[in-house]
């Protein structure tokens, strides 16, 4: 957890074990933007606001900016969703453009709002740091990004870093496969039931500049998640994928 401004903290989703740390930092209000709310019985001593959203470029966080800013301002708060809300607040508070606000937050915490959220923050900047559904800027933005008005889709589950529990990808991004019965080929990648194969994930491009062979690390704790190959690999089950990741279970 990092202090962005005096009294404004940005961090991962808290659980029961986080409460002593929250108290030590004199945190009394929590804004959570996630697929599910915090447990009411665990956080009953805090003022809590919950905003449902997935961490994809297709979720509309812009509609939450005004409500979030008011909540933060009244209570003076990871993931790209939380970072987006904090950046929006910094933009509004100091009336500064997106890039300057992003850089200020980045100095305190390594944050990477996805492309969709970045566009929404730019729209917020173009609207003069206020949210108005009747604004010509907003109407034009929504008409060009109609997917933002779609209902929030909640996947059946998501996978997290084993070390810090940072969400890495959700179940719908897993490429299902069956283990092949044919003999191994030296040019193929083994599938020994200890791997998960995914489609490419946008957040990885911030850290993967080479074509292949490099390690992918967790964006939060820097633990090893797996490796990648943007050229693709032939696997024992005879499909061709652009990314593969080995996961440790348990």
UniProtKB/TrEMBL annotation:
Gene3D superfamilies assigned: Protein tyrosine phosphatase superfamily (3.90.190.10)
Domain of life according to the entry: Eukaryota
EC number: 3.1.3.48
Residue ranges annotated for the Tyrosine-protein phosphatase domain, each copy included: 1-127
Gene Ontology MF term list: protein tyrosine phosphatase activity; protein tyrosine/serine/threonine phosphatase activity
Keywords on record: Hydrolase, Protein phosphatase
Recorded GO CC terms: nucleus
InterPro entries assigned to the protein according to its UniProt record, in alphabetical order: Dual-sp_phosphatase_cat-dom, Prot-tyrosine_phosphatase-like, TYR_PHOSPHATASE_DUAL_dom
Enzyme class: hydrolase
UniProt-listed Pfam families: DSPc
Record-stated family: Belongs to the protein-tyrosine phosphatase family. Non-receptor class dual specificity subfamily.
The protein, known as: protein-tyrosine-phosphatase
Annotated organism of origin: Rodentolepis nana
């Amino acid at each position: 957890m990092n202090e962005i401004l005096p009294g404004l903290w940005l961090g991962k989703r808290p659980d029961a074990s986080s409460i002593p740390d929250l108290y030590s930092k004199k945190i009394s209000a929590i804004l959570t933007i996630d697929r599910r709310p915090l447990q009411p019985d665990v956080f009953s001593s805090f003022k809590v606001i919950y905003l449902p959203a997935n961490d994809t470029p297709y979720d509309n966080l812009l509609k939450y900016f005004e409500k979030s800013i008011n909540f933060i301002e009244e209570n003076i708060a990871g993931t790209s969703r939380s970072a987006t809300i904090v950046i929006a607040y910094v933009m509004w508070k100091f009336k500064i453009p997106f890039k300057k606000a992003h850089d200020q937050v980045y100095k305190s915490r390594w944050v990477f709002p996805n492309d969709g959220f970045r566009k929404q923050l730019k729209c917020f900047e173009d609207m003069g740091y206020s949210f108005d559904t009747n604004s010509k800027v907003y109407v034009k933005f929504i008409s060009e990004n109609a997917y933002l008005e779609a209902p929030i889709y909640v996947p059946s589950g998501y996978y997290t870093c084993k070390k810090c529990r940072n969400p890495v990808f959700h179940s719908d991004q897993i490429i299902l496969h069956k283990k092949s019965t044919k003999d191994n080929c030296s040019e193929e990648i083994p599938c020994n039931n200890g791997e998960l194969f995914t489609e490419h994930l946008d957040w990885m491009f911030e850290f993967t500049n080479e074509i292949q062979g490099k390690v992918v690390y967790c964006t939060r704790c820097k633990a090893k998640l797996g490796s990648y190959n943007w050229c693709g690999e032939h696997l024992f089950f005879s499909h061709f994928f652009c990314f593969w990741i080995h996961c440790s279970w348990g």
